């Protein structure tokens, strides 16, 4: 079954989405150029880098007529709004300002974790409009988990009103990698053995009608950070630290996915030669040595019991537990320095609710190492930030991936994707 923009209901948004028309029709070369330019203008406005037609002409090098046509299209789609005259020093007529219309579109995203699913509707600024988490026992059958996602979507959608804005008819689904890009099946996902070989899209019920955009969970979280930060973060490495460890990379505000969409598997960088066996099949990987799961395993082997939260509560007064946490921070820092040296980014964002819980042990080690060890430290410092998204990072990221891939829609005036294909 095909839906708008050449998306199959059981398939991922096509990789060539920016060059597809409504209903999957091939765009002409002229339409392809317009679509690229429209996307560029939209994101300049979204990031606050150009706030009038005049400044957009200067920023893009496009003609005033081309900018005017693109602005009219974005206005027709309801993605931007005019703000009145833009302040300027010179005499004469002041240009009319434009800005993102936050509730011009809403997107839904859902993130699958080992023991819960998180869902969220967000607006064009990345702000959460409605969200919820549903917890379950680890190892739950994937069919049952997808059923929870359908119910979560229905519950959160029921909270919305028409005043909240139009809703894009696609859901983003953040899943653990690696993902086979040919069929969207999960391949040897560490700590998700029961998801091996599963295509999550195929598990939705027969009556499900919305297309599903699958994204690697850590990459989705990086997209969410980029979307929320607007122009603050342009080149950065995102690291999710928790039961597992993952990474995402944003370069010049574009997400780097690698050949198969599985780039930046930080958790599977070897940090201890010949170390602990890892779920990926390797040894001494960061995830096997310095994740929450690894710390709990090491603590239990040393005679401690209880959850990770219990261990954290005792760690300040126990040198053994403190040493385990400090080692984890140092090994994470080692991997991050290697990644920074490879990609020459100036910012590292650390995320995950477990990271926030253990920040006093993990963050200082990363901050110090990234100040002292990168090869380009004398050229530019590396800033270490902690994400404020917490448990919502995956769901917000999955929803942001929908916004990032679908908008702007490129529809002609009066026939835009938003005006003709929204739900609710």
Write up what this structure looks like.
The protein is α/β, with parallel strands linked by helices and 424 residues long. It has 3 domains: 2-103, Winged helix-like DNA-binding domain superfamily/Winged helix DNA-binding domain (Arc Repressor Mutant, subunit A), CATH 1.10.10.10; 104-222 and 394-403, Nucleotidyltransferase, domain 5 (2-Layer Sandwich); 231-390, Nucleotidyltransferase, domain 5, CATH 3.30.420.40. Residues 1-25 and 411-421 have low confidence and may be disordered. It has 13 helices and 14 strands. It has helices at residues 29-46, 53-60, 64-77, 142-158, 217-229, 286-290, 292-301, 308-314, 319-343, 353-357, 359-372, 393-406, 417-421; strands at 2-3, 7-8, 80-85, 96-100, 106-112, 116-122, 128-135, 167-175, 212-216, 236-241, 245-251, 254-256, 347-351, 383-386. The protein is globular, with a radius of gyration of 23 Å. The strands form 4 sheets. A 5-stranded mixed beta sheet has the order 7-6-5-8-9, with helices on both faces. A 5-stranded mixed beta sheet has the order 12-11-10-13-14, sandwiched between helices. Strands 1-2 form a two-stranded antiparallel sheet. α1 (29-46) crosses α3 (64-77), α2 (53-60) packs across α3 and α9 packs parallel to α11.
Offer a quick outline of the entry.
The chain has 424 residues and is an alpha/beta fold. The protein folds into three domains: 2-103, Winged helix-like DNA-binding domain superfamily/Winged helix DNA-binding domain (Arc Repressor Mutant, subunit A), CATH 1.10.10; 104-222 and 394-403, 2-Layer Sandwich (Nucleotidyltransferase, domain 5); 231-390, Nucleotidyltransferase, domain 5 (2-Layer Sandwich), CATH 3.30.420. Helix content is 37%, strand content 18%.
């Amino acid at each position: 079954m095909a839906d708008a923009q050449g998306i199959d209901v059981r398939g991922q948004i096509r990789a060539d989405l920016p060059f597809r028309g409504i209903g999957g029709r091939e765009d002409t070369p002229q339409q392809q150029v317009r679509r690229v330019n429209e996307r560029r203008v939209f994101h300049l406005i979204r990031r606050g880098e150009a706030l009038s037609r005049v400044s957009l002409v200067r920023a893009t090098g496009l003609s005033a007529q081309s900018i005017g046509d693109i602005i009219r299209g974005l206005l027709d789609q309801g993605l931007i709004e005019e703000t009145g005259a833009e302040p300027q020093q010179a005499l004469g007529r002041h240009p009319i300002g434009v800005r993102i219309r936050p509730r011009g579109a809403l997107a839904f995203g859902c993130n699958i974790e080992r023991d819960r699913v998180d869902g969220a509707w967000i607006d064009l600024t990345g702000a959460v409009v409605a969200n919820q988490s549903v917890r379950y026992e680890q190892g739950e059958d994937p069919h049952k988990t997808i059923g929870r996602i359908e119910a979560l979507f229905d519950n959160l959608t029921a909270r919305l009103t028409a005043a909240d804005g139009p809703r894009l008819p696609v859901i983003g689904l953040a899943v653990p990698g690696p993902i086979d890009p040919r069929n969207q099946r999960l391949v040897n996902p560490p700590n998700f053995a029961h998801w091996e070989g599963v295509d999550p899209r195929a598990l939705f019920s027969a009556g499900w009608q919305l297309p599903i955009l699958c994204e690697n969970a850590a990459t989705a979280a990086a997209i969410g950070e980029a979307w929320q930060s607007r122009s603050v973060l342009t080149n950065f490495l995102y690291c999710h630290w928790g039961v597992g460890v993952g990474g995402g990379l944003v370069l010049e505000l574009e997400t780097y996915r690698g050949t198969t969409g599985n780039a930046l598997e930080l958790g599977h960088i070897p940090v201890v030669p010949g170390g602990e066996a890892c779920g990926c099949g390797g040894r001494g990987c960061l995830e096997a040595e310095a994740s929450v799961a690894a710390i709990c395993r090491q603590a239990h082997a040393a005679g401690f019991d209880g959850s990770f939260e219990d261990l954290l509560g005792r760690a300040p007064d126990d040198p053994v537990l403190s040493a385990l946490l400090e080692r984890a921070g140092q090994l994470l820092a080692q991997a991050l320095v290697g990644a920074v040296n490879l990609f020459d980014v100036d910012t590292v964002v650390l995320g995950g609710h477990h990271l926030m819980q253990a920040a006093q042990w993990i963050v200082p080690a990363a901050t110090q190492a990234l100040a002292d060890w990168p090869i380009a430290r004398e050229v530019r410092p590396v800033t270490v930030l902690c994400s404020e998204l917490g448990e919502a990072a995956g769901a917000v990221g999955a929803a942001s991936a929908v916004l990032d891939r679908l908008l702007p829609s490129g529809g002609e005036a009066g026939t835009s994707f938003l005006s003709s294909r929204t739900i609710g």
